[in-house]
Specification:
CATH topology: endopeptidase fold (from Nostoc punctiforme)
Radius of gyration: 17 Å
CATH superfamily: endopeptidase domain like (from Nostoc punctiforme)
Strand order of the largest sheet: 5-10-6-7-8-9
Number of helices: 10
Order of helices and strands: HEEHHHHHHEEHHEEEEEHE
CATH class: Alpha Beta
Shape: globular
Amino acid sequence: MKRVGTFLRGVAVTGLLSAFLYVGPASAVSNSGKESSSRSMQMPGERIRQRPQIAIDAIQALSLIMRTENKEDPMYLESRRVVSDGVAKRLSLDPTELNRAWSRAPRDHQIAVLSALTQLDVPYLEGKEDSYVKMDCSGLLWFAWRTAGIDMPRQAVSQLDRRMRVDREDAVAGDITGEGTHVQIYLGTGLAMIHAPFGGKLVKFKIMSAEQAARVVWTNPSNIATFRL
């Protein structure tokens, strides 16, 4: 396991930004039954308006943090606060506490959280990590942490690898939690998560129950990254 190089991260975020402008199926079926490209028919502004506001705010914050190694950059901090306030409102969390939790997280964890948030409301499809189109639970985590520069394994079981384990009380925003074949990204406070739940559902937020919290394991993908290219 290793860190993805700076060049590759730049390529990844460039692709992420361009993909963000397109959401929805690659083609649409017209009344005549023939497929027509919805991608070519939609204007960028129309595509952006289809995304949830939190996802739009997250892509803005993500673009700022990917340009600098300084996670205390003032423009980034303000952009991130807008995102955390939106998440806190959606989940009825304390916005100050959530923003503080994100501040404590390392830079790569913050990138992973923001990357996952850009996928909010993307449909679930098993075995997929087609950003902004379809995702499964491990694909969401793979996408988020690859954007953060970590060469993540693709399978949920490997994402819960024993070598990456951390205690629950030491977990920070961006860490992974899960059991069996289902994984989620921890948002840093309480038991708030973002995940791709199962077929027919969208990438969404979740407050994990105390019963489930007692069963899951927690992992930090940074623990298995050995060097930077």
